[in-house]
Design brief:
The protein has 165 residues and is mostly helical. Helices cover 70% and strands 0% of the residues.
Length: 165
């Protein structure tokens, strides 16, 4: 009798395992399907030209910012950082992608670090060792990260409100 109970119990367990292992062909009731990802934007000549223009503008803003931030210390530094914010945010709005903020940000970063490492035969640097230079460097990186993150949030459709409230 115990074999019959054991066999029946084993049979039920085997049936349950087989029924659960088969899976279902459709979504479960009440489960929402994930939206399909949007296709990547096409590379048109206008888009490539826009990115090239943003790259060149990033280099020019880096050079101008390096000169202006030291010339008029508090006002020039604020002007240089505002110009960076305008370039990065404007690039993201113009292209509608995160790359619109990343391209001029990368061009600015590479140019600034090349300007820092460049020394003249007289031993002069374009950037002095003052507080303004360091604030310009760190502030520019922070502005680039903020603008890129904001552009990424817009691209994914995330709401700017509080999380969970």
């Amino acid at each position: 009798m115990s074999e019959a109970k054991g066999g029946a119990a084993a049979g039920n367990g085997a049936r349950r395992a087989r029924a659960g292992a088969g899976g279902t062909s459709g979504p479960r009731p009440g489960a929402s399907a994930a939206p399909a990802p949007e296709p990547a934007p096409r590379s048109t000549p206008a888009r490539v030209g826009t990115y090239a223009l943003l790259l060149i503008t990033g280099v020019l803003v880096a050079i101008a910012g390096a000169l202006v931030q030291a010339a008029w210390f508090p006002g020039g530094l604020a002007l240089a950082l505002l110009a960076l914010g305008g370039l990065f945010h404007g690039g993201a709005l113009a292209t509608g992608t995160t790359a619109g903020a990343l391209v001029p940000g990368a061009a600015w970063l590479v140019t600034v670090f090349l300007l820092i490492s460049d020394t003249r035969p007289e031993g002069d640097f374009l950037f002095g060792a003052g507080t303004g230079s360091y604030v310009f460097l760190v502030g520019g990186i922070v502005v680039a990260v903020i603008c890129t993150t904001a552009a990424q949030m817009r691209a994914t459709g995330a709401s700017p409100g509080r999380v969970g409230g």
